[in-house]
Design goal:
alpha/beta; Rossmann fold; Arc Repressor Mutant, subunit A; 2 domains; 6-stranded parallel sheet; DNA-binding; DNA binding; CheY-like_superfamily; WH-like_DNA-bd_sf; phosphoprotein
Length: 223
């Protein structure tokens, strides 16, 4: 359902926004910027799991989701994927400090409607928010070009292509989680985690687990 905007000169109902970010100052700053243009109520959640519960309870008109929540570099992407399974029309705007086209492309593939960087000027943040709230899409031109270039083959290079499951496990490995903890969180067997880790080492050219952590961080940062 397309969100109903109430601009300062309009008379529509308040827009209900849920922000999922582990930094409280983000919700405060977001509120100061957006309330200059839109009449809204803003709630926040500090984790993906709490964001999911808050969505189920409040059913907001629009969600603003960070990609990295805590030490998990793809927690926001997993939340977007989960939300999209049950609400295909919910406007979702990614608000992130990362400039990785790899993460941005993955977020868009799983259902984000727009992406805006946290250090963008207020006018651009408002533009992204307004476009997504109205049912549109927003990605700034520079990031859009970087995403497009990911699909362009370069002579002598072969960028690793990871599946969603591989990215999920790699994200938890970069957090420093043990294989047992990863298995418990992902509801899979220890052997599956071990096998995926071997595949990841091969795809990323890592010689050991420590090297895989380093290369995993670089992968998510787009280096």
């Amino acid at each position: 359902m397309q969100a109903a905007l109430k601009m300062k000169s309009g008379d529509a109902r308040l827009l209900h926004i849920l922000i999922v970010d582990d930094h409280p100052v983000v919700a405060e700053g977001w509120g100061r910027i957006i309330r200059t243009k839109v009449a809204c109520e803003i709630a926040s959640a500090p984790s993906a799991s709490e964001g999911w519960r808050a969505w189920r309870q409040a059913r907001p008109d629009l969600m603003v989701v960070d990609l990295s929540i805590g030490r998990n570099k793809i927690a926001g992407i997993r939340l977007i994927e989960r939300l999209r399974r049950v609400d295909p029309d919910l406007p979702i705007l990614v608000f992130t400090m990362h400039r990785s086209p790899v993460l941005a492309r993955r977020a868009l593939m799983f259902g984000a409607n727009g992406i805006i960087n946290k250090d963008s000027p207020p006018a651009e943040i408002c533009a992204a928010f307004t476009e997504v709230a109205r049912g549109g899409n927003y990605v700034d031109s520079r990031l859009a070009m970087q995403i497009a270039l990911l699909n362009v083959s370069r002579p002598g290079t072969s960028a690793p292509r990871l599946t969603g499951r591989e990215e999920e496990i790699l994200g938890m490995i970069t957090e420093g989680m043990s294989y047992r903890d990863i298995a418990d969180r992902a509801c899979i067997s220890y052997k599956t985690v071990s096998n995926v880790s071997l595949v990841l080492k091969d795809k990323l050219g890592a010689t050991n687990l420590a090297d895989l952590v380093v290369k995993g961080i670089r992968y998510f940062e787009g280096d």
